Amino acid sequence: MLQVNIQIDGETAEKLLYIQQQTERDRAEILKIAVAEYYKKLEATEFVGRIGENAGQKQANPNLDAWSDFIGSIEAAPDLVGNHKAYLREKLDKKYDNR
After folding, report:
1. Cα 16 → chain centroid
2. How far, in Å, CA of 31 to CA of 23, rounded?
3. Which residue segment(s) compose the domain that 28 sits in?
4. Does the pTM of the predicted model rise above 0.70?
């Protein structure tokens, strides 16, 4: 096990304290989770970058391999994530108003 001693600025310390209060987890556990999430994000970014380089080859991450054909294959409104309910409502209204 690696022991880590760090110094953090006041703003980061406040954020860490807030996370502790909200999650009721200790600092070590919060830092483990943060590192794991950061690692996952970097791993996903590297995977996306490798798609073009390894076209036609088996992907390095088997969990993402099944989805690799879908990346970049869908066109949608840029604000779809935030407004998906409005878009769905609009489509359903159009579909059922004509009956």
Report:
1. 21
2. 13
3. 10-97
4. no
